[in-house]
Structure prediction request, 206 residues.
Amino acid sequence: MQPIERQPLVPRRRHRRGPLAARRRQRALRGNEGARRRAPNKLQRRKQAEIEAAHEWGRQVIGTLDDRDLLLAAVALYAGEGSKTDGCVKLANSDPRMISLFLRWLRGSFHIDESRLRIQLYLHQGLDLDAAVAFWSSVTGIPPAQFTKPYRAVADASIRKTKHPMGCASVSYACSWTHRRIMGLIRALLDSDFLSPPVRAGSLPG
Prediction:
């Protein structure tokens, strides 16, 4: 029996880290950027067209809100997004339109002491706090002096990749009387009767 000759070890191929590898990585990155800049395909164009058509349809169906429309919209918004803890009216959202709608209704429906309104910002670290304060102050009409200490979140790429550049604003108004009236409106809305039968598919125009 012939002895088995030991074969020489073949060194494992390592990833190249020289100029050639760097150039290849740069070409790959440029290729990815080019793909992101590529014009939308037929399916993407059709999707965007449907979104724009739905937006226009929604505008026609909703129309202009009167005071009662605003009341129902704001109460429904608070029922879903607002704080239910007794003693303080509080609503947080990253969409300035939501915050504007809520404050328009709150100020128009109750006697609000403007000096008691407060805002706390939830803003990721690395984003411009001064710009966020100026933005939300402009949206709400609440002066920066009434902004409380912000919460600066540490971004976690494993949870989310997108960040709201202006953060999330939490508007609060410490008033038990006002909060209890809002909760009464929510209960009345959810317990209310309907004048017409349930809405059926296709009942809306368009």
Observations:
- The first strand starts at residue 89 and ends at 93.
- The longest helix spans residues 42-62.
- The mean pLDDT is 86.
